[in-house]
Amino acid sequence: xxxxxxxxxxxxxxSELPWDRKTGLLRREAADGMMNPACKSALEAxxxxxxxxxxxxxxxxxxxxxxxxxLHEALAMGADRCLMVSDHIMAGADTMxxxxxxxxxxxxxxxxxxxxxxxxxxxxxxxxxxxxxLAEELDIPSIAMVDDLRLAGRRLRIERVSDHFLETxxxxxxxxxxxxxxxxxPRYIPMAGLQDAFQEPNILTAGAHDLxxxxxxxxxxxxxxxxxxxxxxxxxxxxxxxxxxxxxxxxDLFALYEDSIGSVIRxxxxxxx
Amino acid sequence: MVFNACMKHKLVRKSVREFAEAELGPIAxxxxxxxxxxxxxxxxxxxxxxxxxxxPKRYGGAEADxxxxxxxxxxxxxxxxxxxxxxxxxxxxxIYPILKYGTEEQKERFVPKLASGxxxxxxxxTEANAGSDASGVETSAVADRDGYVINGTKxxxxxxxxxTTPLIFAITDPDKPGRSAxxxxxxxxxxxxxxxxxxxxxxxxxxxxxxxxxxxxxVPKENLLGKIGDGLKIGLNALDTGRIGIGAQAVGxxxxxxxxxxxYSKERQQFKKPISSFQxxxxxxxxxxxxxxxxxxxxxxxxxxxxxxKEFGKEAAMAKLYASTVASRVTGNAVQxxxxxxxxxxxxVERFFRDAKVTEIxxxxxxxxxxxxxxxxxSEPI
Lengths: 273, 382
Known about the structure:
heterodimer, A: Rossmann fold, 3-stranded antiparallel beta sheet, 31% helix, B: alpha+beta, Butyryl-Coa Dehydrogenase, subunit A, domain 1, Butyryl-CoA Dehydrogenase, subunit A, domain 3, 4-stranded mixed beta sheet, 4-stranded antiparallel beta sheet, 12 helices, globular
């Protein structure tokens, strides 16, 4: 039986994320939440391992109380039990404080694991750091951005695309992987699962005190990352509409883009003229 | 009283919506155009317990509460009214009467296959000369040795073309149609039971609505649901639950038309402005949103009464009456907002418009709902 932990995060559902302009932090309460897509793929990967080899899945999230929703969702999909890590002193944690906190939670409640699966990145902050940092905290090997994986005994064989090359890597357990959405399309949730997930949900709640974490070790006070400014990126593109007779348009086009076109067709257009 | 969706109901909506948009979304237009029952999607619905939504776990169902059930119907109908219809009729009038009035033996024999979706249910009252007036049913069931012989024709049977265990409303004594009305479970393959042509209807075209013919169709006495003469009671009770489903379906169709209208009104430019900037369009959108919200709350109130073990006939009739009226009005206004495009079969709003109309007709017409409501309020003490 493979003992697995899936770390997951609730992210805002909307594509335009509301943020607090003073603090630079996301206003998560302003949007409806959902399970981060890559985390859902990580859970799907764990469920497939469980189906093939037998196993036990603990889903963990750290977040405000409303993040509990994704743990119910994890139970509905097939996770065996959940751990909700939540405390006001954990609010505003950066990736380092988050991985530190998750590591303490895992050590406290489920240190006896074989494999930790995380989403490769989150749709709201995109850092892709928590998974690998968590492996560092726990001092276990890790492979990030995994597209596909297969378990053979105590060895995990993974595939991932890196710089347009397909890599095949092997890692002995215990270890950690971060999973992409490429291969593990999450299953639909059956109604019976949804009803069961709220009947007697197997969700444990842990605060900072339970994990032996003090103020300053987690949350915004335990986070070395400082957000100086949050701003919308601008595309920096401009359309140029050329008018006039075709001959004039071609001349104007060459006048503007002579060097670029020449480099593509590998000819010095000045010389051609 | 709670007006905000709880975590469970939010998640139910999210999950069903994800399924409906991904699996039914790409084909909803086509199955309507071609009047095709999408067996491939039905197969996927089976694994998600959509055919045993409120059936107890011991018979293989999901044992969901009524609001979860309504949300499921709403979300399927938001994408395809015809498939919402298939699921709601199967779950409400197709299964519920067996659960409520069936013997343990009947439940064990019929419900697990219905709950898994292997069998599809239907409920047949309507005939050429009977519909709103259930006592006008002419289909007869004559006691014969250890069973009954059924003769008659049922029309406009939802799921008719695909049903495997329809519940048939028949009379055993032509002189006392009301008192002898009874319900029989007829299984597909029983000699004398045949399915007629699929009806060419204005809306709900992906649902194989058809006639069912019974010609000396012999069923064992074990297939009688309840007792002889229980027909009207079973029928009325089944329709009460059915009305919650049709109310939810109407809300789902209206929601789809409303969302399409909001999106289109922001995109469509006239007089160099999006039409959503015009007050007349804004007024229409505001009315749509308000009425849909009100209809939804009425449906959930009926669900709440049902789950609380209270009488819910009046509540279900009010929900169905109001939601279906709103669905017709909202989809009509959606066509108006879309202008010429709304009248084109290229756009979905004309489908919503056609689908919405029948919610005012089946499971009791609006006129019958008013009768049910009036009867209830006039019998209440002042």
